[in-house]
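Sequence in, structure out.
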Amino acid sequence: MTSVLFRNVEVWDASRSEPEELEVLVESGVVKDVSDSPIRSESAQVVDGRGGFLMPGLIDCHVHVTLSEVDLRKLAFIPVTMMTALAARNMRETLMRGFTTVRDCAGADKGLAMAVEAGLFQGPRIFQTGRALTQTGGHGDFRTPFENHDNSVDSNAIAPQSVIADGISEVRRAARNELRKGADFVKVMVSGGVASPTDPIDNAQYSIDELSAIVDEAAAWNTYVAAHAYTSRAAANAVESGIRTIEHGNLIDRETADLMAKNDAFLVPTLAAYDIMDKFGEELGLPKVSMEKLQVVKDAGIRAVEHCRAAGAKVGFGTDLLGDLRTHQSCSLALQAQAQTSREVLVSATRVNAEILNQSGKLGEIIPGAIADLILIDGDPLKDLGVLEHQGRNISVIMKDGKFEKCELG
C-alpha cells in the first residue's frame, strides 16, 4: 500500500476562502486524512512542501487532445495513427501544466482514455464524448460546399471529430452509437462556429425535437448532453431541451443566463481560444473566414461570464485551444479573472468542473475519500494566477491517483 504524507504545506480547495497550514495523508490513491494536527504514519513517504501551496489538480472541461492543427482542414491529410502520436505529446504537456483531468469535447475516444489509465500514455484522466453530433451544414460538418461524401467513413484525423445526423431517428442512432462505444457524455452542435467553414456564427442548429431526443438518449445512459452554442437563441433552445452544459456561450444575454440558472445548466467558457487565436491564429494557418467570424465573438465572452455570475448560473472552466496554441492553456485562468475573482476562477477549474463531470467528492477537492489529484505550487494563485502559467514551471509536485507524475522536491 503506497502512502504519502504532505507536511509544511498551505492547503486550499473550494471549501476554504484562504489556504490553511494542514497535513494531508494519501493512501492507495485517495486522500486518507486532512488535519491541522500532526498525522502519524509508520509507512508514509514524507514530503516537505517547504511552505508551498497545495491544491487539487486543475480540470479543463473543454479540450480537444487530438486536434493538432489550428486550421482544421489540414487534419484531412493526417492519418489517425499520427493523430494519436501527436495527442500523446499534447496530453503529457497538459499534465505538466497541472491539469490532472480533462473533458474532451470531440475527437478522443474510450481507447485513448483507457491508454492513459493503463499508463501507456502519460497524461490527465480523460472524460470523452467520442464524436460530436452535427446536422448537415452544422459546426461539425467540415466538408466544403462542393463535397458530398460522408465524412464518417474517412480514416483521417478529421473523421473522429463529428458525425452528421439529421432528424429524430438519425440523432437517436448517432447518440446511441457514441454511448455504445463508451462516451462519457454526448456533445451536440447547436450553433455556428469559428473553425467550421460553411455555417454562420448566429445560426441555430438542430430543432428542439431533435435536441430533446438526444437528451433522452443520454439520460437513458445516466449521463448528460453538452452543447456548442454561441448565441442566446441557440443556448436557450439547448437549455429548454434539457441540455446540461453550454460550451462557449459568448453571445448569451442576461435573460438566457437566468434561464440557465433556473434549469441548473452550466456555462463552460473558453476565453483563451479567442484571445490567443486572435493574436496567433493567422500565422498558424487559421483561414480568413474563421478570423472574420472570430471578431464577432472574441470580446463577448467576458460579458457572458458576467451575466451568468450575476444570474447565479454555475460557471466552469475550459480552454478549447487547438494545435500549438495549447501552450497558452493556463493563461485562460487569468482571462476568466476579468469576470470573476481569482478564487472563483480556481473554484470553477476544480469543484465546479468536478460537478460537471459528475465527480463531486471524488475530484476537485482535498477531502477524505477524494481521488488524490494534487499540485504543489511555488506561489499563491489566489493572489496571482500567473504562477500557474509558464508550462508548469512553478509547480514542483504533480500527483494523479496518488502517484507522482512530477516531483522536484528533494
